[in-house]
Specification:
Serine Threonine Protein Phosphatase 5, Tetratricopeptide repeat, 4 domains, four-stranded mixed sheet, globular
């Protein structure tokens, strides 16, 4: 049983807030979707080729890199608790070895303006090129090695010595637990991301690839000219690999034969990151291979487009299949994001029309929705233009095709052969010129609106937030009614009410926080172990969404309680290291009015007791 009830504090926290604030996500992504806010249903990632698992080689390589002086902590910020733990564990590392590690890192350090993420990228690739510990067998030197690996391949002997002398082999089990806990945190959101993308494409990923190989002929006659082929199958996997020592916000993506690796830093939200792009590539790549004959028929017009862009000074891959794959991923990602935003606009418009009393109100709501749709279209165009300039020169072409496809409901695999017909190099070479006006509007809007990605789906939100109006009073009244439902343990009705409010106030941190609180209270009163675990993980997911949506300047009390609440749940789930991180995050915020500073201190002290 989840015996500790979380206090009903949200009205006290929110009483000091005078406006209904909706903070934009921290990346160029839509507001949290309705799917992200709803309770998770059973969804087995392995059925779709997806696995969340840490990699011991990566942990050891990154720990050695930490000893070598790699530090991605932004200026003015504190290192993560796990990085601090690793530093403490390595305080007594052999000084001569540490010096050699540092010398190697400095000697092969990339010059400015390379970022910490750029420095780490080659070592991440190295980790996947090496064999398992303790041998860390290095591959033969070859130009076929992943980019940058040759530069740091001589780090392998130092890594073997580090493994022997650092004592990391004894700590690896506890490190792996911490990485697994981050994987567990990622799992619900990753499942929702996978489900949402596959639903948009109406497909399932190809998780088995076939290879035609020549085998020994069964014909025993000498000088037989019989050639025999056999088909071999390979399992395809998309690995989501947590990296608690990575540069913040930097995802490393690797494709090694049939295995796709997305190495993600702590705190990554799958639906709001490059992880989504990586999974789209996992889905699209085998389709490009399967329909290579149909694509090959378009090689000449694609070559004409490549030549035209190259003459214009652009850097474009000469490989038609690379162009097709990159362009399809870019187009699908842009259209997927656009579709999500448009769905939000429709939900908001529907909810507001239900409450409208006059024709004037209804016309105003319709006009605002039309304005939002136009802004969302401009943003999609701007993103496609950026990808086009980076080499995805068929992304506008495929975006047009996908617009027709997404309304058809067909599996993209069944539509794939027809997707490539009709490439017009003259038209595609003029795309940037044709979309200048739309792109300029989007770029201007990005500068004009501090909460741009919320403004896209709710253009009047800034105006409403600028003044204290009756709508804010209605918001507080609704939350008071939710509190009554929670006090009477009517959790199902409270959750339903909160989801309805999220349609009207999309991405609101207070609503997401209260959804987390509802799930955690519901878990307390649940006797079924499976249901209890599901509700606790649902609570964690909503608390994390609340943290992502909250304003660090204006929502300190909410952030304090969200971190403290997550810590208590993680402690109950026996994820002590992760619980300490959340307690520390709450403590770091300080003793703010209405916060959970003292509770976090007490919780951390109790956690350290035997």
């Amino acid at each position: 049983m989840f015996r500790k009830a979380l206090p009903l504090i949200f009205l006290a926290v929110f009483a000091s807030l005078t406006t209904a604030q909706t903070t934009a996500p921290k990346t160029n992504s839509p507001a949290p979707t309705a799917a992200q806010a709803r309770p998770a249903t059973p969804f087995e990632l392995s059925e779709y080729g997806v696995a969340l698992q840490p990699d011991a080689r990566l942990i050891i390589v990154m720990a050695a890199l930490e000893a070598a002086g790699f530090d991605p902590t932004p200026p003015g910020k504190e290192p993560s608790p796990f990085r601090m733990l690793v530093r403490k564990d390595q305080m007594n590392l052999d000084s001569a070895l540490r010096e050699r590690l540092k010398n190697f890192y400095e000697r092969y350090k990339l010059p400015a303006p390379a970022t910490a993420a750029d420095q780490a990228t080659r070592y991440v690739s190295l980790a996947y090129a090496l064999g398992p510990q303790p041998a860390f067998e290095a591959p033969d030197r070859s130009e076929d090695l992943p980019g940058g690996v040759l530069d740091v391949l001589d780090f392998a002997p130092l890594l073997r010595e580090f493994y022997r002398k650092s004592g990391i082999d004894e700590r690896l089990v506890s490190y792996l637990r911490a990485y697994q806990a981050e994987g567990d945190r990622l799992r619900p959101a990753a499942a929702e991301m996978v489900r949402s993308i596959l639903s948009y494409l109406h497909t399932r990923p190809i998780i088995v690839s076939t290879e035609r190989v020549r085998v020994k002929s069964p014909d025993k006659k000498k000088n037989s000219s019989t050639i025999v082929y056999s088909t071999r199958e390979h399992e395809r996997k998309f690995y989501i690999v947590p990296d608690l020592l990575a540069a913040p916000g930097a995802i490393n993506f690797r494709v090694i034969a049939d295995d796709y690796y997305a190495v993600v830093p702590e705190g990554t939200e799958p639906a709001l990151s490059e992880l989504r792009r990586g999974f789209l590539q996992f889905v699209i790549d085998p389709l490009v291979l399967k329909f290579n004959k149909e694509i090959a028929q378009q090689r000449e017009p694609i070559k004409q487009l490549i030549d035209a862009r190259t003459k214009a000074g652009a850097t474009v891959s000469p490989d038609a299949f690379v162009i097709v794959g990159r362009s399809l991923v870019a187009a699908a990602d842009a259209r997927y994001e656009e579709a999500n935003r448009l769905a939000w606009v429709m939900e908001i418009q529907r909810a507001r029309l239900q409450k409208a009393n006059t024709d004037g109100e209804r016309k105003s709501i319709a006009a605002e929705a039309e304005s939002a749709r136009a802004a969302i279209s401009d943003e999609a165009v701007a993103r496609l233009a950026e990808e086009y300039e980076n080499g995805a020169v068929l992304d506008f072409f495929y975006a047009d095709q996908l617009r027709d496809f997404q309304s058809s409901g067909f599996d993209i695999a069944n539509f794939f052969a027809e997707l490539h017909t009709g490439v017009d190099p003259a038209r595609e070479s003029k795309r940037l010129t044709d979309v200048n006006a739309s792109r300029d509007r989007a770029l201007s809007a990005r500068k004009a609106h501090p909460r741009y990605y919320s403004w896209l789906i709710d253009p009047s939100g800034e105006t409403r937030e600028a003044a204290t109006d009756p709508r804010n009073a209605a918001f507080v009244k609704n939350l008071a009614e939710v509190e009554t439902l929670l006090q009477t343990r009517n959790y199902e009705a409270a959750e339903s009410r909160l989801k309805s409010l999220l349609q009207e106030y999309p991405g609101d941190a207070r609503l997401l926080f209260t959804l987390g609180q509802t799930a955690s209270l519901w878990a307390r009163d649940t006797t079924d172990d499976d249901q209890q675990a599901q509700r606790l993980h649902r609570a964690l997911a909503n608390y994390r969404l609340a943290v992502a949506a909250a304003s660090p300047e204006n929502d300190q009390a909410l952030l304090s309680h969200a971190h403290e609440s997550m810590a208590r749940i993680l402690a109950f789930l026996d994820q002590k290291d992760e619980a300490v991180k959340e307690f520390d995050a709450a403590i770091k915020i300080g003793r703010v009015t209405g916060g959970a500073y003292d509770d976090a201190l007490a919780g951390k002290r109790k956690l350290s007791q035997p």
